[in-house]
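Posting for a labmate who doesn't have an account.
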Amino acid sequence: MVKAKKWWLNTDDDNTIKTALFRVFAEEIVLGNAHCFITSIDETKSKPEAYKEWIKCTKELLDWGQKYYGRKNVNLYTAARKFLEIKLASHNFYEWSDVDGVRFKKKATTPINHPIPTIDEGIRSIHCLTDVSDLSNRDLATAMVNVNQQVLKSFFGQIHRRISIFERPLLTARRDRKSYIYANFNPKYGQYALTILRTFNNFCHPWTSSRDRDGKKEATKLTPAQRLGLTEKTFTMKDIIYFK
């Protein structure tokens, strides 16, 4: 249903998800119309440490951008894209190997650090699982700047806040034990609740975003389904319940 010419896929280093993506988008990957990025973080890092990294790296990146462009009003993402573009000139996600006179590509094991850390995760490393040799360094850098998992984290946050059976365990009054009073003991009903929330989030809950109209960007409230072009309207829960 999604009429997309290019697919930019982003996930963490999970073998199950990677296998599923390569099966679902097998044809697009072979044709070079889908590229999969893997994001990895240091999970042992505390939030204060991640915040310090974010402060330090963003300041250094802005200073670098001001020196490179020779002006002060440099956008952080503009500096990050140019920084990645320069770094990609000497970095390759694949390396070449020769076997019996046949030369083929082999995945290298050297990821590249994203120039903009996140506040709660710190520095992230990015690796690309697909062949990006047909992309220019500028196009690849533009795609990599946008690689993040904040949308996924936002949705998981909604799951914890809106569905009580998926809420984290509560600490008792003496704070020496955990209470699972809202815990879900039947996966079937958990799946029902997630399906309802996902449908509501995709078709009924609009978010403020930018949209191209006649070559101009304008801020407007759209549901994810509207942004993907699946529908032109914002649905209500009654529309979903009585849909035929």
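Reply:
Got it, the structure tokens are right above this. Strands lie at 7-12, 34-41, 94-99, 102-107, 112-113, 124-128, 170-171, 178-179, 207-213, 216-222.
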